[in-house]
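G., the chain you wanted modeled:
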Amino acid sequence: LGPETQRETAEAAACQMIDTANRLRTPTALLLRRGTFPASAEAFAKKTAYPNRELAVIEVLKALPNDIPVVGTTGKISREIDAYCATRSQAPTPFLTVGGMGHANMIAGGIALQNPERPVACLDGDGAILMHTGNLATCAQLPNLVHIVFNNRVHDSVGGLPTSAPNLDLAALARVAGYASATCLMSAADIGPAVRSVFGRRGAAFIEIMVSPGARSDLGRPKTSPTENKSKFMAKLGASNV
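Predicted structure as tokens:
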């Protein structure tokens, strides 16, 4: 289905899917092209006073130590991380969780568990957090984890539709889950100081950054494959098995 699809056609396609699933006892799928629901997406993703997400990502990366392991969540956040780090010699070597929505914080958590004296950063998204919210209780037990979540209240990488809980206070949720510190930022000027302040303190840190929906139209994609990215990241960590 796409933006030009009439309601009757969409209803017929849904009925055909249900009939096929019932007759053949098999999964079926309905594919929606980008822009199928432009009105609802645009109405929700209106302009806000929050900072641009890519700007916020860059401010975080600037504030992080260059030798810190950085794990980026799937979608446009990883693309924005890659766009910044790929062109700068003084930048972290990130691991980009391509296609693994909701798993970035546990990947970062595994690295933090294996390297308890080394800070590890996870750059996450609000939609990814909601997919595996129970991960927060595990991540909160890792004293060297810096968990940074960019919250624009939509699923930006797949069309900008609202998440299932757009008004959920993620920082409050992190505090309840047991993070040693949890804060919510609404200004780009606060990002650098807030990120730098967590180093030197023991205990899992959670930083929620409110950002505006949307991304620039010419945002590129990583030029290395996921396998190459993994190998470079492991080599940076000093792993022997890549």
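The chain has a mean pLDDT of 91.

Shout if anything looks off.
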